Amino acid sequence: MKKILAIFIIVVSAYFIGVQFFQNSSKVENSETAQNATDNVEPDKNLAQTSANDANDAKMFSADMQYDETMQWRKENFGKYDVLILSNADYNQYDLEELELLSEQGDFAAMHVLAWKYMNLVDPKNAMRVYKQAAKYGSTSALKRLASLENALKKWDANSDKVLREGALTKLAYFQAALLRGDSTVLQDASYQLKYIENSESDKRYVQKRGREIYNYFEKQRLHDGLGTFDNKVPSYADEYFSFYNKEYSSLISGESSIMLVN
Predict the structure, then answer these.
(1) For residue 66, which of 95, 170, 182, 237 is within the disulfide window of CB 3.0 to 4.6 Å?
(2) HEC string for 16-74
(3) Please, which pLDDT band fits residue 43 given cuts at 50, 70 and 90?
(4) What is the rounded average pLDDT of the residues 31-49?
């Protein structure tokens, strides 16, 4: 009887050890898959950092700029929602199906929350689909995300200099499309990509041509859906905010010819 009990204990222990090993192995495999699928995509901690940076940005500008109004305008026109907006209780009460329905009805904030949720679920293809919808509605924030997602879904070898260069050119092209919308804040992100490119004439032609193609693609989608052409006018009270990024970028390239067409 004692032998039978001992054998039973050994078998049960082996079973639970095996289950634990399988679960751990699955977690590692899923983690690696998630990492590969979302390579080069900005993590949510960067969103939180962006939120903190936005709070500090107000100190850099004059009282005449109407900072709060400018930030609100960015949200409504460029989709600049920080992590606090994306995780707010009003939208987190909705499941994916409800957010999909709200997005289809043109709810700009719902599109960004939905895409953010897909990113957290490590579902880059659905995130890309929703960010494309948001870009059609005018979100330059979505254009930035699409740049990273397009690179991630190609599953490149990130150790290759050629791949880093091609990835940078892809991002710069999406940033160029955002610039055409009037969002010069992307120049800050663009500056991080300059070290990977040659700034040659062929690079400039590619970025500017591809950026225009991206812009035209989403404007065509707007016209098809009866939304009209993009309204790229920046209100006068926000001029100081956006011109700040133009000046910073111009200072960075020190008089060199810019790879991007800056307004």
Answers:
(1) 237
(2) HHHHHHHHHHHHHHHHHHHHHHCCCCCCHHHHHHHHHHHHHHHHHCCHHHCHHHHHHHH
(3) very low
(4) 42
Joined together, the tokens standing for residue 145 give 């995300």
**Looking at this protein, which amino acid is placed at residue 94?**
Y
Distance CA 182, CA 222 (A): 17
Q: Enter the tokens of residue 63.
A: 């009282």
pTM: 0.74
Angle between helices 201-224 and 124-136 (to 10 degrees): 80
Query: What is the Cα–Cα distance from 27 to 45, expressed in whole angstroms?
Result: 22
Q: What are phi and psi of 218, to 5 degrees?
A: -75, -30
φ/ψ region of 184 (left if φ > 0, alpha if ψ in -120 to 50, else beta) reads: alpha
CB 91 within 8 Å of CB 110:
yes
Give the residue among 50, 57, 61 at the shortest CA–CA distance from 240: 61
Most confident of 54-58, 59-63, 140-144, 214-218: 214-218
Q: Which two tokens stand for residue 235?
A: 């209100």
CB atoms within 10 A of CB 78: 22
Q: Give the tokens for residue 179.
A: 């610039």
Q: From 74, 148, 144, 136, select the one nearest 103 (Cα to Cα).
A: 136
Residues 6+ apart with CB under 8 A from 99: 91, 110, 113, 114, 117
Rounded mean pLDDT, 78-89? 72
- The confidence band for 87, taking pLDDT boundaries of 50, 70 and 90, is low
Contact 48, 74 (CB under 8 A): no
- Per-residue pLDDT, 26: 35
Q: Which residue has the higher pLDDT, 158 or 13?
A: 158
